[in-house]
Amino acid sequence: MLLSLPSVDGAVVNVDRFSQMTHPDQSWWDEPAMRSALARRDVGQIFMLLNRRHGMTQRRIAELAGFAASEVYEITRGRQVMAYDVLVRIAEGLGIPRALMGLGYGTEPTQEHHPEPLPLGEPEHRKHFIAALAGFAVGGSPDIEAWLPRPGEQSVSVPEVVNSEAIATVREVTQRHRELDAAYGGGSCRDSARGYLAWASCLTRSRCQTPDLSAGLYAELADLHNLVGWMSHDLGEHMEARRHLAQGLVYAQKAGDSTLMADAYYRLGRVSIHQGNPAEALHLFQLGQIVATNSNCLTSVAILHANIAWAHARMGNAPAMRDSLARARDEIGRADTTQAPQWTRFFCEPADLEGMSGVVHSALARYSQYRKQHAALALTHAGRALERRTETSRSGAFDHVTMALGYALLGEQDKVAPHTQAVLDAARHVRSRRLLDRLSDVADVIEPRQDKQLAEVVTAIRARVAA
């Protein structure tokens, strides 16, 4: 069965009406409508113009661009194509001059030998790594090159001079990927973000006309590295996450941006706490707190206090947990959220502090002496978070994890299953290994209980995690 493509003016064109074309004529790329679509990287519009104006069939477009025919149809219907390497593949397959899409030229790449970065898998490896990172928090410039991610081999053309428009492009790309990550998980767009990062990183080889532009470029690169590191963590690739976050820390220092340095430390701490090392996480959060305080950014200070509370809760230190959580509430209450840096905006939503409070209390509730009181508090906060969230997101799925864990800790077995099912449903469209790992914590709590309904819940969780 042949599919039809929607035309530029809304009419439907049957692909059988046109003869099979071999390759696009180079003159097609100079047409004004095509030029505009290429400049916007609007792949759906490019495909429609090839079909409607030049008679290329859906099948032939797919063959040249490296897609299945059904994918071409989906793209013309609105599916976005953002991954840098995919855009390069389309340009090469269709014979599009890459400059028209703002893509680099693949002339002979310079072959450089880049030794493998130092390992980070073992606690002893991370001890030296974190000790080096601590130097940034006190104004030093430690050499951490040996741990940083290695550049790719693909040669990319870069402008001779970086202007404000190029920096704005990096900012917009980062924000778009941040939104996708929050809604659909790191797996939804990490590869795309890495492709853009490869291009953006090459801008450091260009000349910035003013110190402010140079600082702006390094700040945007730091933000993008931090985001790619966070996405990698969300996918369970913790070593890669640490390398990108360390690079983000280096660039943030070059930019003189303490809030982005705090962001890198915060996310490094989150990797450690997820891997079951709250003491290591606490150290990293405290380093972040130093630079966040120096930046006078109350939203970043609040984020670090809330996560310090989580580390204390994981270690069973109730007084320190309560103090840090109270400080987080106080700081966010005093912050001018309209001026908050972009990476901190998630915490400006009332639902997020409630959700984080639920996570903190549920961590303390794992200790038997605190179970009843703090499991109940976890349920209260997570319930409020769910009420306040305005749209489906990864954060909402984590709130359901907290609810399930709270009910499991209290032994209210009949209330566990609806929340675990909500997480399993969310996992169909949220690509996050971190979410599944946290759901496994619920299974660990309820597995020893010989209850038929809970046994079915555990089976469902284990099956999804293993898939």
From TrEMBL:
Transmembrane segments: none
Superkingdom of origin: Bacteria
SMART domains given in the database record: HTH_XRE
HTH cro/C1-type domain ranges (all copies): 53-101
GO MF annotations in UniProt: DNA binding
Pfam family, one: HTH_31
Name this polypeptide is given: XRE family transcriptional regulator
The organism of origin for this protein: Micromonospora zingiberis
